[in-house]
Design brief:
Helices cover 67% and strands 1% of the residues. The protein is mainly α. The protein has a two-stranded antiparallel sheet.
Length: 395
Amino acid sequence: MKQLIYSVYVILPIILLWGAKFSGFKNFNEEFLSLKQTKAVQGFLAICIMLHHIAQKTCASWIQPQSRIVHGLDIFVNAGFLLVSVFLFFNGYGVYKSFHSKENYLNGFIKKRILPVVLALYTTTLIFFVARLLVGEKMDGKQIALYLTSIDLCNPNTWYVIVLPFFYLAFYLSFKFIKKDGLAVFATTAFVIAYIVLGANINHNDYWLRGEWWYNCVILFPVGIIFAKFENKIVPHLQKFYWIYFVVAFAAYYPVYVWSQGVCGRFGYYGEGWLPQNIIVMNRLISVSSQAVVTTLFVFCVLLLSMKLKVGNKFINFMGTITLEFYLIHGLFVELFGWQFDGGVRSPHHIKYVIVYVLVVFALGVPSAIVLKHIHEIILGKRKVSAKASLKISA
């Protein structure tokens, strides 16, 4: 039974490649950056992020005691920042392309782009808060306030949806008040870099910017914007020398990843209490620079594959429509069925076999995400409650 978890390495390629179309050695997938394709890619990556969170609960040596480690998903333990970097790239790419293709795009930008993310953050925060009470976590008034505001993460997987609205806001302000496109791109990029530097100056803590995972892949947001700005020059160039880039990029990826891990191992993000603060900050900036290289290369490899491979099937297309909600809610079931709930309280039911753990988290996460999406759409006015439902409620 324990060995069945390795079946995910067969299932995942099937999920991704089912219905995929190869463009041939000379032709290209002209829709590789279309909304449909990028949503399908993100739908697939949402599943991988679920596996990353389960991997941390089952085989991360710095989280679990040695006696509780169950191997199988080890490859996903350190993959989180790489997977999220793809989302950030598409976030940046998407807002820039929409700004230039949709008339008056910035009108209602906060309501359309920022409010849905903030709403999803706090609805799932409330759900996690109730779950923490039910599993028996003790908390005083201060802790309740910290949890409900998400200053202390009630849902431990929410850093991305806390950071993203600030990046969207920086984009909005830059492109609203700066008329020169290049300067607006520069301003947005400068904001993200300033955020990274700020993160490097803050020691590990229990609140926002609590660790390097809050900023070690965010550079891909402005990279996505810059790619979109110069897409008409970049894509023809990549097509002309495609196979050279393909071979070099994929041959270089693993050595670059190992190099980055070595840099982080030598310099690192820690040192509180035994190194001067200026040295700690310098070490963090060196480490995050190396990870900026490897995340950019990772996203570049994803784009190169997409240029040749048109992916999409009913399953990952559907997952692409609920990525935000699934990203936020699946962690509840990761916590409930792990051996310990985030914060130290014993989980109500520990699932021993990892493959069963994965299937249960997914089976409960998907319908929960669908319900959440419907609720969010009703609150935002995108969906109306049916007449029959209204009658039942009024009755």
